[in-house]
Design brief:
Layout lengths: L6 H9 L4 H6 L8 H9 L16 E7 L2 E6 L2 H6 L8 E5 L4 E4 L5 H12 L6 E5 L5 H4 L10 E5 H22 L15 E3 L4 E5 L4 E5 L11 E4 L4 E5 L17 H14 L5 E4 L8 H22 L4 H7 L11 H27 L26
Parallel strand pairs: 4-5, 5-6, 6-7, 11-12
Antiparallel strand pairs: 1-2, 2-3, 3-4, 8-9, 9-10, 10-11
This protein binds zinc ion.
Zinc ion binds next to helix 6.
């Protein structure tokens, strides 16, 4: 999802006063960007049947540290505040010798908007592309960037794309529409594969981008990109947007996701700017809020299992009314997160009973999508 900027922003960062309000006030005037104006004039209406409508999206770029830009939908602040899901956010970092793109968006039209926002600011070559996950709205646009740019992914991301690209595009077409340009997509092989716990730094010339794999957060291959000496972090989907949004555990793994998020949080300075996967730049509070949700979910599930409640009883009884401001709460919380967390916790309880001589019941009904195996723990770069 999308973006904006400015000198005022840089001053606020320097002063260490990057607060939620300042973020809202520091948003640049999108009309100052010809690339944005072009995108805004071409946008379509929203299709109410879709989670968000790619052809409605007009991206803005906001400078969140010198030459470090977040890219997000122009209506992200308003939609996020109203609990409405927002299009994909990403960003770019401009160095003296090279530009790095973080996430390439869903299709040609959105990738083209990112490219135009970059070209409005620099002629330096785009040498690196990072995909924070395999999700199509973060990686499908790879083919529309310069062919000589190095694509950096976690090995699990590449494995998924190799094995499941056609199926994934079919899935995404069902959810994002058959008229959003997904039919022309082709998988692009990565140039640099990172293994579990990889931690590399890319020198862009006067700018260093650090790319890390910490652990499972929403997929097996989530990468975190930090810039400006750690003051800016691009998160991809694991941090989705400011409250009332909360994490989507599409592939389960509540415990690992929670551990990864806490490990990430421990590395962030108090005045860090967090560029989430689907919203405007935020403070570290957005990470704290995601951790709080996951902690609360874990607690609810543990209570339910301790009370011997069934899966269905847990789903109907594990409501968290404080999160219903997120419009897709019934789906994300009740249909995705609670069942996934229940299955994980119940499996763990059964394994404990089994190893301690207790009765082994029939296996749990594991809900969630494919669980990717972790790769070797050796960085290749
Ligand atoms: Zn996404």
């Amino acid at each position: 999802m999308p973006i904006r900027y400015a000198v005022a922003t840089a001053c606020m960062l320097a002063a260490g006063s990057w607060h939620e309000d300042a973020l809202a006030q520091g948003a640049p005037d999108p009309a100052s960007s010809a690339a944005y104006r072009k995108a805004a004039s071409a946008r379509t209406a929203e299709d109410p049947k879709l989670v968000w409508t790619a052809s409605q999206v007009a991206l803005v770029a906001r400078e969140v540290a010198p030459n470090v830009f977040a890219v997000y939908a122009d209506d992200a602040p308003q939609k996020t505040a109203a609990g409405i899901p927002v299009a994909t956010s990403g960003g770019f970092i401009i160095g003296d010798r090279a530009v790095m793109i973080i996430d390439t968006m869903l299709n040609r039209q959105l990738a083209g908007q990112v490219m135009a926002l970059v070209r409005e600011r620099t002629k330096n070559p785009i040498r690196y592309i990072v995909n924070t996950s395999y999700h199509g709205d973060h990686s499908y646009g790879n083919q529309f960037f310069p062919a000589d740019a190095q694509i950096i992914q976690h090995r699990a991301t590449q494995d998924y794309i190799r094995q499941s690209f056609a199926k994934d595009v079919a899935f995404m077409t069902r959810h994002f529409g058959s008229n959003q340009g997904l039919a022309e997509l082709k998988p692009v092989p990565a140039s640099v594969l990172l293994e579990d716990k990889a931690d590399i730094t890319v020198d862009l010339g006067g700018q260093h981008a650090r790319i890390r794999h910490i652990g499972f957060a929403q997929t097996a291959g989530d990468l975190w990109v930090t810039a400006a000496g750690g003051k800016v972090v691009f998160t991809g989907n694991p941090v989705i947007a400011r409250a009332p949004a909360f994490p989507w555990l599409l592939d389960g793994h509540l415990r690992e996701s929670l551990a990864t998020m806490k490990a990430l949080r421990a590395t962030l300075p108090a005045d860090a700017v967090v560029v989430p996967g689907h919203g405007e730049p935020a403070t570290v509070k957005v990470v704290d809020d995601h951790i709080a949700y996951l902690d609360r979910l874990k607690q609810r599930i543990e209570e339910s299992i301790a009370a011997r409640k069934s899966r269905d009883e847990t789903v109907s009884g594990a409501g968290m009314p404080e999160y219903t401001g997120y419009r897709i709460y019934p789906w994300v919380h009740l249909q995705v997160n609670v069942p996934a967390a229940y299955d994980e916790q119940e499996l763990k309880r059964q394994q404990r009973n089994y190893t301690s001589g207790g009765l082994r019941r029939s296996g749990p009904r594991l809900g969630g999508p494919v669980r990717l195996q972790s790769a070797q723990r050796t960085a290749t770069m």
